[in-house]
């Protein structure tokens, strides 16, 4: 019914009760759409169900009600069409940086030659500035570097859509800034469709075309969807000179502080 | 600084060894007190040399020299070199252990992956695990009708449990994130088993193997004492029947040495598959 690339219709998730009392649904009645090439951020307080929504979009978890439709087909399970960057990078520590990305690339293109796989991985690791660390193990990397390997792994399989779960959550402000810039560059170059969870209002304004605001759980809902109307060419260093910046920022912060309660 | 400490520790070890040997000499010297070699020979002739008191370090040293200078001689069923005996024991342990690996790894994998199977098999494992492996010996001898095969079976049964339990535990506690990565990449079940779950669980599995090997080496000595024929355990028993205590002490030290080497070997393997998280 919608013309969106991805549409979420009437999504609801309730976990089975652990004690005597029945669990109320974490969220219900979630509707939104994402157009092709759009960058959408979702913001909400901790525990409102953002990761759960992302897992349902990824096909890792089943909703209790409603459906997710991508590219005209219902999402029924995980797929190489949707690349995921996990909240805690999720690199396999026994593989090198190159090995981790190659594992993903070989899954997507099983009959590529070794040289082709390596060249492809090297290209994507170069894009996130890790060309010099190909043969290191994840334990030898800083937190920011690990997160960048996770991003390269997700990009390298050229998914139709990227799902990012607080990819910069564990990073200090400086590293976070540089990686945001890198992500922005890659996304603008590839026209990738992205759904990203964040806690950081400035990050959302910098990266997103659209910000989804969720009210607090349980029974969380989508409170508002805010269009970021600033020009797409915004950068981290000059976006706050834009006359719209503070209006949008205040609106989002206001929501989180005052209006997020159901 | 670190090297200095290693050097000091080695020196201290030598000192402790010297003290031990000294105390041993002193203790056995007084009891034996064969002042001249003629006396000793006389005592031996009278059949007393062996039974009067505990052997001196020198006597045990002699046993070391005789056995180690010709480890692989074979003069009939009751007189074989130590090398041959140890090889027999290692062969039994190796075979029983390999069989246990062949059962414990796939079964442990299945149990670790399936909570249903885990619950169904848990009571059996809990019941079978605490049974002393030697208690199986009569049943094994009766049904397998061969002492050699029974020995191997006992090794099999005692190495099975630690490996089975550790494999199941290692597989069950592979981080959810890694499984999810494999799922989003649509990785097939075999590739997932060998490239994600196995390496993730390998350190735990190898810990199980190391424990199993340690137990197997403990058990083989007792098993060979029971069934006889060949092996280091039989050697100990045989020498005890001959009342050749220096030889018994020699064999005891050899058992310790071989056990240590086996343990170190598995320690190496363990290091090889261990990964550092974070
Ligand atoms: N497996 C589970 N069983 C029961 N309840 C769960 C389970 N997973 C999540 N929940 C509940 O669902 C709610 C939403 O969890 P979710 O991880 O989606 O939150 P989030 O918005 O991502 O939070 P954060 O910002 O802290 O990451 C929480 O209240 C949590 O307790
Ligand atoms: Mg979360």
From TrEMBL, chain A:
Keyword list, A-Z: ATP-binding, Cell membrane, Membrane, Nucleotide-binding, Transport
Listed PANTHER family: NITRATE ABC TRANSPORTER ATP-BINDING PROTEIN (PTHR42788:SF7), TAURINE IMPORT ATP-BINDING PROTEIN-RELATED (PTHR42788)
Subcellular localization(s) per the UniProt record: Cell membrane
InterPro entries associated with the record: AAA+_ATPase, ABC_transporter-like_ATP-bd, ABC_transporter-like_CS, ABC_transporter_ATP-bind, NO3_transporter_ATP-bd-like, P-loop_NTPase
Membrane topology type: Peripheral membrane protein
Parts of the chain that traverse the membrane: none
PROSITE patterns per UniProt: ABC_TRANSPORTER_1 (PS00211), ABC_TRANSPORTER_2 (PS50893)
Keyword match Cell membrane: yes
Xref: Gene3D superfamilies: P-loop containing nucleotide triphosphate hydrolases (3.40.50.300)
Name listed for the protein in its UniProt record: ATP-binding cassette domain-containing protein
Family, per entry: Belongs to the ABC transporter superfamily.
MF-aspect GO terms: ATP binding
Record-linked SMART domains: AAA
Annotated ranges, domain ABC transporter: 6-241
A Pfam family this chain is assigned to: ABC_tran
Stored CDD domains: ABC_NrtD_SsuB_transporters
Main location: membrane
Domain of life: Bacteria
TrEMBL record, chain B:
Topology term for the membrane: Multi-pass membrane protein
UniProt source species: Aromatoleum toluvorans
Subcellular location: Cell inner membrane; Cell membrane
Pfam families assigned to the protein according to its UniProt record, in alphabetical order: BPD_transp_1 (PF00528)
UniProt lineage: Bacteria, Pseudomonadati, Pseudomonadota, Betaproteobacteria, Rhodocyclales
Gene3D superfamilies, A to Z: MetI-like
This protein's record includes keyword Cell membrane: yes
InterPro entries linked: MetI-like, MetI-like_sf, NtrB
Bilayer-crossing regions: 95-118, 150-174, 215-237, 243-262
Keyword field: Cell inner membrane, Cell membrane, Ion transport, Membrane, Transmembrane, Transmembrane helix, Transport
Domain of life: Bacteria
Protein name: Nitrate ABC transporter permease
ABC transmembrane type-1 domain ranges (all copies): 86-266
Main location: membrane
Family designation: Belongs to the binding-protein-dependent transport system permease family.
């Amino acid at each position: 019914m919608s013309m969106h690339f991805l549409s979420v219709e009437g999504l609801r998730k309730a976990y089975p009760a652990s004690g005597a009392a029945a669990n109320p649904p974490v969220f219900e009645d979630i509707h939104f759409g994402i157009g092709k090439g759009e960058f959408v951020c979702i913001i909400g307080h901790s525990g409102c169900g953002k990761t759960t929504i992302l897992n349902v979009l990824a096909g890792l978890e089943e909703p209790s009600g409603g459906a997710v439709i991508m590219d005209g087909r219902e999402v029924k399970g995980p797929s190489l069409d949707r690349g995921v960057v996990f909240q805690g990078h999720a690199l396999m520590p026994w593989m090198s940086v190159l090995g981790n990305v190659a594992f993903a690339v070989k899954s997507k293109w099983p009959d590529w030659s070794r040289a082709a796989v390596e060249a492809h991985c090297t290209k994507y690791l170069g894009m996130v500035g890790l060309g010099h660390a190909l043969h290191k193990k994840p334990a030898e990397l800083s937190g920011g570097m690990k997160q960048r390997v996770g991003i390269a792994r997700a990009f390298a399989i050229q998914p139709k859509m990227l799902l990012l779960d607080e990819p910069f959550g564990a990073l200090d402000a400086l590293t976070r800034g540089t990686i945001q810039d890198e992500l922005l560059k890659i996304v603008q170059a590839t026209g990738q469709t992205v759904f990203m969870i964040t806690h950081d209002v400035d990050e959302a304004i910098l990266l997103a075309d659209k910000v989804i605001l969720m009210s607090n759980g349980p029974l969380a809902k989508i409170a508002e969807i805010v269009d970021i109307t600033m020009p797409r060419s915004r950068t981290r260093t000059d976006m706050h000179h834009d006359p719209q910046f503070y209006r949008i920022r205040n609106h989002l912060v206001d929501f989180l502080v005052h209006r997020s309660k159901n | 600084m670190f090297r200095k400490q290693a050097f000091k520790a080695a020196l201290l070890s030598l000192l402790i060894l010297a003290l031990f040997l000294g105390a041993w000499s002193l203790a056995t010297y007084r009891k034996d007190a064969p002042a001249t070699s003629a006396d000793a020979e006389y005592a031996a002739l009278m059949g007393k040399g062996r039974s009067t008191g505990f052997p001196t370090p020198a006597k045990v040293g002699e046993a070391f020299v005789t056995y180690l200078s010709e480890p692989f001689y074979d003069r009939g069923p009751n007189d074989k070199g130590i090398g041959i005996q140890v090889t027999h024991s290692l062969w039994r342990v190796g075979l029983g252990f390999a069989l246990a690996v062949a059962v414990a790894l796939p079964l442990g994998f299945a149990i670790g992956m399936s909570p249903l199977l885990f619950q169904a098999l848990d009571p059996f494992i809990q019941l079978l695990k605490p049974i002393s492996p030697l208690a199986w010996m009569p049943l094994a001898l009766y049904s397998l009708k061969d002492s050699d095969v029974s020995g191997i079976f006992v090794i099999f049964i005692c190495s099975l449990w630690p490996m089975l339990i550790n494999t199941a535990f290692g597989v069950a506690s592979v981080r959810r994130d890694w499984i999810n990565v494999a799922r989003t990449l649509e990785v097939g079940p075999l590739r997932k088993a060998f490239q994600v779950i196995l390496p993730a669980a390998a350190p735990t599995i190898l810990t199980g193997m190391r424990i199993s090997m340690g137990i197997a080496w403990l058990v083989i000595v007792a098993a060979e004492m029971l069934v006889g024929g060949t092996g280091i355990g039989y050697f100990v028993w045989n020498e005890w029947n001959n009342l050749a205590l220096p030889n018994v002490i020699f064999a005891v030290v050899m058992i310790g040495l071989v056990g240590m080497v086996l343990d170190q070997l598995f320690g190496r393997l363990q290091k090889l598959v261990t990964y550092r998280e974070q």
